[in-house]
Amino acid sequence: MKQNTQQAQQAGEIFSAIVHTPFGGMGVRTAAGVLIEMVYLPKYFHEKAPTDVVAERAAKQIRRYIEKPGSAFKLPLAEVGSPFQQRVWKAIAEIPCGQVLTYGDVARRIKSAPRAVGQACGANWFPLVVPCHRVTAAGGLGGFSHQDDSDSFFLDVKRWLLQHEGVSGY
């Protein structure tokens, strides 16, 4: 418990906002007028009021998504990732709310390999904005955020997000 409290205090220092969600929290980091990272956080992280305009916009859009999962995100994003990762993230961003594709489906669309797509999904700096939760394994849920079946927090987040968007069976 003491470690959780310490982690939460440190998070308050590095995040520009923390938004409470039904699955836990969403940490938002901004710098120089752009969003530089979004992070899924366990429930013991307390909400933090936005410290700047971009963090305020991100927090508002996260809350809107929680209320209405089909809501689009329109935020200034930092230019991160390799050209390949950016291609994968662009393909994932085109998956409509309430639908899923497999890693193989995305790989075929961009002429790549499923494992490479999975690695790019796990390296996503902007979850929710780039909805990697909409990408699953051919035989089930798959991993999430570079986590596997042994880390139930992230897989529980993925399940919640899919159910929230009306996708069942996971």
UniProtKB/TrEMBL annotation:
Superkingdom classification of source: Bacteria
Pfam families xref list: DNA_binding_1 (PF01035)
Key words, A-Z: DNA damage
Residues of the Methylated-DNA-[protein]-cysteine S-methyltransferase DNA binding domain: 83-167
Keyword DNA damage appears in the UniProt entry: yes
Name assigned to this protein: Methylated-DNA--[protein]-cysteine S-methyltransferase
